């Protein structure tokens, strides 16, 4: 859909409602027109909300003027969720960065949506507590964005995703009404709570203005291990064995050989040089007694799967070196040059070896490198198709590869999206995962909570094709 | 609302759809017309569904004929959720009692909705696993009913409620479409999952035909303690101190003096005779090492609050004796005679002493005994107004007491319902807890998922007054 355009009168109303904390300057609008997808959508106006009441006022004006509202955290998304593809208001939460309360006894933090994940983490760490969800973007991405996308991370294997930590929300609906849920509604538990619908709804059902998050105790001991393999299949087999063993794994990250080469090149000097066809980064955590014998249990299992370079980090320094490799992957791939298409899929953990074989087949078929790394512990793989976006043939083949990768994931009982959401880029594939009845319920809920269809329009449920493929010829089979 | 009546043709269609597993005999209809509330609503037909496909067929016929459908587990509810107050189809799940799968590795059980809670418990116990939600009705109530009401129990303080264990559902919507969520949809996590809306929705949004439930490891050690107090306030103070202490309490049940007298009289010979003004039943659980010193930590704390008869169960036999008292409460109160009105409210744990003082004031004001017991650990109290239902004055005063108790709970930041739901009896009070915006979202979700309003109509969101008060004069203030 296309919303109305911004009139001068509406612009004045918005300016008055937010005390001038807004802009229609082209340079500002451009800054809020994109995320990590290379898709662009220019908002008519950028609003930096400073309070819940300002959000309410803006929503009422937008409803009246039939202007789309697109909430936005740090804009680090991989599926276009925060892009104002229909214009309207880019509603930024950069100024709502208050950690309102940390209730140590109840183990709950209440934060504004603009709080950066890592700021919350370090604040609660000082109180001996932990906020587990740790997306790779944690140094920039916001809690509001994490809630919108249902963000996961390396620790998800043990701790679950953002979904498992949201215990209360303050929502502003498109008509400006305020709904509080869970902890923020005094843990009221009558009738049904819309809260769980909101996590992962990508800002399409309501705007979040406050989040109550469950915290956990920090683990007594964490141990970090590294293992390299002669083949990615070996690493994938080790994932399956570790999972079946039931040890208290809190991180289980996999990297293929190309990813590893790229990342180690990038961190040269800051981490040991390493070359292999696959690697695992493993952490276990728990009480000191429980963790003591873990390496003795893990190492033989890794070696049985063909691991060569196994090591346990002996101190914090060695731990940082190991993590440095993992954390540099995205930046290192970006430096490779021309471009990449990053898709996150998830498959049952036991099917990772099968998926990886299928991925290699697809890579060969389309003649484009496909690099894989990610959260093997919960079956969530980040699959990167390396290409030159200006090259039509590359793009035609990439489109073919994306479709084939999604089909493979679904075929194996997996999902289109482990944590990046559907947004714009995966909307055209949603019907491959959800059947007609589930899509019907999804659409009914959208109509119920956003009847005017102004809230982050044309996301998730959209017939708009992925703009990546705009102007491409239809892919020829077997191209 | 009143739905259409059952025609001969529709009756034939239903009979054909369920292979004759239905009845319009008055004696059968009467058996499915009530629950624990003393409210009656006669269905037009009782259907004992034997499979998901039969449910689908019945829903399609009912939609077409505009006949209400009221799903029903064991009918043990305290708010009228399963009563066919508008007639239509009483859809019983008594024949869908299959434990379809227990996946020990994934710690997930998949069951049909008619499985009795205790049957699931004992089945998974044999595999070293535990299904924690333990409503007092567990020997009769079904998983489907537990899901509909969001049932809790003594163990909720440590383990949470049914809501925390449902990881997947198979739903049949009013139009007969089938929607699978979570584990039963291959853990698909794209867009929004209607699953969490369904738990606690009292069969008003969809019918549940399969439930995937998370299981936990059985605790290594459980210890049971009993403490008596010279006053209920002392017991309530101990609850607050135990909670603040942070020990791994898995059960924290409170009983007032009248409840205790009644229950001990009932179990005479099967448990030690005991007379006091308040008692606590406490359990702690965990690893043997962690639990070893627990009594030494608990006992001084109890004594500081004025506990007199403190004891730790030394064996399984003594444990059973202690539980016998708690489990006999409902039956013993029923034997007291004429009648009771049982309301479950919840308040923040620290406010239990204040609520109990307020309850005593209300009891004196209306001149009716009010007995209290319940899950103090999560602030959920079962408040029983003892009365003769045939006595108009009693009923007028009870109505006044119920309103005052709800107001007191809400005033203290509590809720109308800890676990019994809203159903018919609390619907008239819902607007005291949810504000207009929250009610708006609640109603919008109902319209979205049951647009024909045939699914368990006139529950939760209903302008129908509580039938308990039918024919009563308006209560006089200060009666």
> In total, how many beta strands of chain A?
18
Range of helix content of chain A: 25-40%
In what range is the share of β-strand residues of chain A? 15-25%
Query: For the record, what CATH class of the largest domain in chain A applies?
Result: Alpha Beta
The greatest interface here is: A-B, 54 and 54 residues
Low-pLDDT segments, ≥5 res of chain A:
475-479
Gyration radius of chain A, to the nearest Å?
23 Å
Number of domains of chain A: 4
- The CATH topology of the largest domain in chain A turns out to be Uridine Diphospho-n-acetylenolpyruvylglucosamine Reductase, domain 3
| Average pLDDT number of chain A | 92
Distinct helical segment count of chain A:
17
| Largest sheet entry of chain A | 7 strands, antiparallel
Termini distance of chain A?
A: 34 Å
Sheet/helix structural class of chain A: alpha+beta
Describe the global form of chain A: globular
> What is the multimeric organization of the chains shown?
homodimer
Could you characterize the architecture of this molecule?
The structure is a homodimer of 479-residue chains. Chain A has helices at 8-17, 26-31, 52-65, 117-125, 143-149, 156-159, 195-198, 232-245, 257-266, 288-292, 294-304, 316-327, 329-335, 352-366, 392-411, 430-433, 436-449; strands at 22-23, 45-48, 69-72, 89-92, 99-103, 108-111, 129-130, 166-172, 178-182, 207-214, 216-217, 221-229, 249-256, 278-286, 311-312, 340-346, 370-375, 380-386. The first copy, chain A, has 479 residues and is an alpha+beta fold. Chain A has 4 domains: 8-92, Uridine Diphospho-n-acetylenolpyruvylglucosamine Reductase, domain 2, CATH 3.30.43.10; 99-217, Uridine Diphospho-n-acetylenolpyruvylglucosamine Reductase, domain 3 (2-Layer Sandwich); 219-332, Alpha-Beta Plaits (2-Layer Sandwich); 427-469. Chain A has a 7-stranded antiparallel sheet, with helices on both faces. The first copy, chain A, has a 5-stranded antiparallel sheet with strand order 5-6-10-8-9. A 4-stranded mixed sheet of chain A has the order 1-2-4-3, covered by helices on one side. In chain A, strand 5 and strand 6 (108-111) form a beta hairpin. In chain A, helix 1 runs antiparallel to helix 3 (52-65). Chain A is globular and about 70 Å long. Chains A and B meet through strand 9, helix 7 and helix 17 of A and strand 9, helix 7 and helix 17 of B.
